[in-house]
Backbone:
C-alpha cells in the first residue's frame, strides 16, 4: 500500500531538544559519573516560586519513561513532565553571567527570574 503525500504539509515537532552547548555539558557530566546505565533525566516537580520547577539528574530508566535523543545525547523524561515540557529547548550558558542549564518552555505562562520555575 502506498500513500500519496503530495500537496500535504507535515510539521514534526520535536518533543524536547538540547542545544549543542547543553549536549556538550551533559556529555562532560556523564563522563564524571562513570555509570553507563544512567542517563540524563529531565523532569518537572511542584515547587519553586512560580508553582513548578525544572529538575535534572542522572538516573536509570523507569517504566513509562520516554527515551529521547537530541544532539546525540540520549535522555529520559517521564510522561507527566513531558506533558509540561513538550517543545522545550534546553540550553547551557557558562558565560560571565551564565545560569547553567536554561529551559525555554513554550508552554509556560510565566517564569521566575531565576529561570528554574514556571507556571
Residues:
Amino acid at each position: 500500500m502506498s500513500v500519496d503525500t503530495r500537496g500535504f504539509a507535515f510539521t514534526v515537532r520535536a518533543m524536547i531538544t538540547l542545544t549543542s552547548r547543553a549536549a556538550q555539558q551533559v556529555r562532560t557530566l556523564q563522563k564524571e559519573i562513570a555509570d553507563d546505565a544512567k542517563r540524563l533525566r529531565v523532569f518537572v516537580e511542584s515547587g519553586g516560586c512560580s508553582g513548578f520547577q525544572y529538575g535534572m539528574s542522572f538516573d536509570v530508566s523507569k517504566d513509562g519513561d520516554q527515551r529521547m535523543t537530541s544532539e546525540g545525547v540520549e535522555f529520559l523524561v517521564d510522561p507527566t513532565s513531558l506533558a509540561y515540557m513538550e517543545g522545550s529547548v534546553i540550553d547551557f550558558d557558562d558565560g560571565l553571567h551564565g545560569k547553567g542549564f536554561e529551559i525555554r518552555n513554550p508552554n509556560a505562562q510565566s517564569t521566575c527570574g531565576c529561570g528554574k520555575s514556571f507556571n
In short: The mean pLDDT is 83. The chain has one domain: 16-114. The beta strands are 16-18, 39-46, 52-59, 66-70, 73-77, 88-93, 100-104, 117-118. The radius of gyration is 16 Å.
